[in-house]
Amino acid sequence: SRDIYILAIESSCDDTAAAVLHNDKLLSNIVATQEVHKKYGGVVPELASRAHQQNIVPVIHQALAEANIDKKDLSAIAFTKGPGLMGSLLVGTSFAKSLSMGLNIPLIEVNHMQAHILAHFIDEEDFPKPTFPFLALTISGGHTQVVKVSNYFEMEVIGQTIDDAVGEAFDKSAKILGLPYPGGPLIDRYARTGNPKAYKFTKPKVDGLDFSFSGLKTAVLYFIQKEVKNNPNFIEENRDDICASIQYTIVEILMDKIKKAVKQTGINQIAIGGGVSANSGIRTALKAGEQKYGWQTYIPKFEYTTDNAAMIGIVGYYKYLEEEFTDMGVTAQARYKF
Ligand code: KG4
Ligand code: ZN
């Protein structure tokens, strides 16, 4: 078999990342997370693109060094074309084009959302791969999608959020509770020792397999405002119960749609990805569903669930096999459907 070495670059949001793969095996995976956004409580696009510009060379150097690979041995450059923040995408796209031109090797464009899904195919002994067809649930601070995956590049979005992403629901609720950004992991942590049924938040009514999370954020805001008026220490005194109740509601919203998707498609393999798939409530509910509903859950290695370049590299590898190369005239695309 052939030896294919892909250098992959990801810069769609606030992580500058580079990875090197040897066929479907990962040799290195470097992520520079931008701390600059923390004090603003969310990603500031202008600051993100500047930080990418600063980080991209050192990150790529480190990825090549850790993989112990010389640039001249690379087979192709894969990069994130979109979706994402335009200013951020431009940094990775321009860099990838230049590198491909300088090294005289093929360029491969990658859709970030497809990459979150195909991350499951990075070869890892302890992480079994789903078989086609399967349902992919991609949940992060930027996306919430249910995708029917029939083959590597045969995918159909069958449900998605009509407003906020699920990660935003966590982060915005956390912000209302005075927790630092990103608050998702903190809600998860406090929820572990709280009562999930302490407070009830209404679930949105959305048709089909689509999601809505903006109503929950508003419900949490009104609830907290009302309670704090009566008791200024309400949040401190009931933090764990509040977090557990918010998380319970989010998990219920997701599970309702997954059950529906499984029923509707007859597909009972569910592969999750995106930063929110780290959430213990979601993991527990999906695992419990294996017994209850007879489905099979796939959760990739943690470093492949958040934004990373390894997932861009695995898509690059499969596209390389198909000789699906990209023309040098390619431009970044903030809204990029598949
Ligand atoms: O995939 P990711 O690193 O970046 C993108 O948004 O694309 O996802 C980050 C999101 C944030 O909203 C963060 O709060 C959330 O994932 N998150 C969690 C947990 N870990 C990360 N949300 C809930 N529970 C967690 N354990
Ligand atoms: Zn992402």
From TrEMBL:
Which cofactor does the UniProt annotation name? Fe(2+)
Which GO CC terms are listed, alphabetically?
cytoplasm
Which UniProt keywords are present, listed alphabetically? Acyltransferase, Cytoplasm, Iron, Metal-binding, Transferase, tRNA processing
Location of the Gcp-like domain: 25-313
EC nos? 2.3.1.234
Q: Which InterPro entries match?
A: ATPase_NBD (IPR043129), Gcp-like_dom (IPR000905), KAE1/TsaD (IPR017861), Peptidase_M22_CS (IPR017860), TsaD (IPR022450)
Task: Report whether Hydrolase shows up as a keyword of the record.
Answer: no
Record-annotated residues binding substrate?
T138, I139, S140, G141, G142, D171, G184, D188, N279
Annotated Gene Ontology MF terms?
iron ion binding; tRNA N(6)-L-threonylcarbamoyladenine synthase activity
Gene Ontology biological process terms from the UniProt entry: tRNA threonylcarbamoyladenosine modification
Task: List the Pfam families.
Answer: TsaD
Catalyses:
L-threonylcarbamoyladenylate + adenosine(37) in tRNA = N(6)-L-threonylcarbamoyladenosine(37) in tRNA + AMP + H(+)
Q: Which domain of life is it from?
A: Bacteria
State its location(s): Cytoplasm
Q: What is its main location?
A: cytoplasm
Q: Which family does it belong to?
A: Belongs to the KAE1 / TsaD family.
Summarize the protein's role.
Required for the formation of a threonylcarbamoyl group on adenosine at position 37 (t(6)A37) in tRNAs that read codons beginning with adenine. Is involved in the transfer of the threonylcarbamoyl moiety of threonylcarbamoyl-AMP (TC-AMP) to the N6 group of A37, together with TsaE and TsaB. TsaD likely plays a direct catalytic role in this reaction.
NCBIfam families found in the cross-reference section: gcp_kae1, T6A_TsaD_YgjD
This chain's protein is named tRNA N6-adenosine threonylcarbamoyltransferase
Organism of this sequence? Antarcticibacterium flavum
| Biological classification of the source | Bacteria, Pseudomonadati, Bacteroidota, Flavobacteriia, Flavobacteriales
